[in-house]
Amino acid sequence: MAPSEAPRSGPWDGVRDYFRQDLLPLLADLRLAIVLLLAIAALSITGTVIEQGQTLEFYQTNYPADPALFGFLSWKVILISGLDHVYRTWWFLALLIVFGASLTACTFTRQFPALGAAQKWKYYTQPRQFQKLALSAELSETDLATLATGLTQKRYLVFQDGTQLYGRKGIVGRIGPIVVHASMLLILLGAILGAMTGFFAQEIVPSGETFQIRNIFDSGPWAEGQIPKDWSVRVNRFWIDYTPEGNIDQFYSDLSVLNLAGDEVDRKTIYVNEPLRHRGVTLYQADWGIAAVQVKLNNSPVLQLPMQQLENDGPRFWGTWLPTKPDMSEGVTLLASDLQGSVLIYDNAGQLISTVRRGMAAEVNGVRLSLVDVVGSTGLQIKADPGIPLVYAGFGLLMLGVVMSYVSHSQVWALEQGGTVYVGGRTNRAQVAFERELLALLEGVAERSGQEALNV
C-alpha cells in the first residue's frame, strides 16, 4: 500500500480511544464511586443540618459573620456557596450525574460481562480440569443419571451431553447487582428531576378563604409548569381538637379544590401526616394561627378584626386593638392564644379588664362587648416533586436487587470416564454452605448407587 493510502486517524478516533482506554476505566473504578458516594452523603448531611430555603434575615440572624460558626460558616459563605439550597446547586447535581455515569460504566464493563460469563459455560472434558476447582470428588460404581437426579432435586438446572454434565442454580444472583445499579440510577434520575422541576410553597390562609399557590420559597429552574394556574383551594373550615388538659391533640383543614369556574373538583379533610394530593401537588397540614376575632359592640353588626401574632419568647399570642369610642380616643386590646374561644381584654394601661368566652359578653368602657368567634388560619406546606414516583420505584427495585444479590450462583460439573465419575463445583458466595450441600449430594448419590465408599 502506498503511503498516501494509509488509513488516517481522525479526531473522532482519538475521542473514542480516550473514552474507551482512559475515561471509561476511570468511571468504572470502584474507588471513584465510593468517593462520590461519600461526597454526596456529606453534602446531604450538610443540607439537612443547615436550614434550606430560608430568608436572608434568617441566615443573618442564625449564622452571623462575627463570630462565625466554626470560625468560617457565616451567612455570606452559606449564600455564596449555595448551602441554603444544596439539592438544587449545580455542583450537587453534577455529583449526582458523575455518580450515575460511574454506576453506568461499572454496569456495562463489569456486571454485564459477569452475567454473560455465567451464562456461557462449557462441559469439562478432561479429569485434570476438576483439579482447578476448590471442591472435587471421584465416584465409582455410579452414573451421571443418578447424579443428574440428585442435582435436579436440589433445584439445579442440569445439562447433559453423553458422558458430560453441567448443572447450575442461582443465576439470579448475577442479575441482582445489575438490578441494584439500575435502581440507584432510577433514584438519581428522580432526585435530579425533582430538583429541576419541583417547588416548595407555604400559605397561611384564614378559614373560609380561597387562595392560589403564590408564596413559593424554593423551586427548580424548570418548575414553572408544575405551579398550578388553573385551579385554586378553598379552606372550608379549620379547627383544632384539644385534650382534656387543654393541649392540642390534632388540627384539621377541610379543603376543596376549585377549577377556574369555581366548581369543586376535589375535597378532603387533611391533618398532620394525611395530606391532600391533586394533580402532582401535595398540600400538608403544617401549622396554624389566629386570623381574626369577631365581636359585637352593643347591638352593632358583627365586626371582624384581623389579629397579628405578637413577638415574644413565651407562648404564642395573637392580638388586635378595638376602639370603643367613635373618635378612637379609647379602646381595648384583645389577646387570644388558641381557638378554644377565650379572649383576654386589656385596657390602654395594659391592665387585664376581663376574660370573655365565645357567646358571652363583658362591659368595657361603658360598652357591651360580645365575643362571636375566634377565626383560625391554617398553615399549609405545599410541595410538588415529579421525581418522587421514580425515587419510590428505585427504592423498591433496590430492595429487590439486594435480595437477589444474596442468592449464590453455584455450578457443578461432572464427567464419566473409565468407570469413574469426576465431580466438582464452585460458587461465588456461601462457600461453606455450598460444600455441605455438594458433599451431602454425593453421599446421597453413593447410597442410591449402592456404593460402599466415597473417595474425596
UniProtKB/TrEMBL annotation:
Localization terms from the record: Cellular thylakoid membrane; Membrane
Domain of life: Bacteria
InterPro entries the UniProt entry points to: Cyt_c_bgen_Ccs1/CcsB/ResB, ResB-like_domain
One Gene Ontology CC term in the entry: plasma membrane-derived thylakoid membrane
Record membrane topology: Multi-pass membrane protein
GO biological process: cytochrome complex assembly
Domain ResB-like: 30-301, 359-438
Keyword Glycosyltransferase belongs to the record: no
Keywords per UniProt: Cytochrome c-type biogenesis, Membrane, Thylakoid, Transmembrane, Transmembrane helix
Predominant location category: membrane
Transmembrane recorded as keyword: yes
A Pfam family matched in the record: ResB
Transmembrane segments: 30-50, 89-108, 178-201
General function of this protein: Required during biogenesis of c-type cytochromes (cytochrome c6 and cytochrome f) at the step of heme attachment.
Subunit and partners: May interact with CcsA.
Record-linked HAMAP family: CytC_Ccs1 (MF_01392)
UniProt record similarity statement: Belongs to the Ccs1/CcsB family.
Name under which the protein is recorded: Cytochrome c biogenesis protein CcsB
Source species of the chain: Shackletoniella antarctica
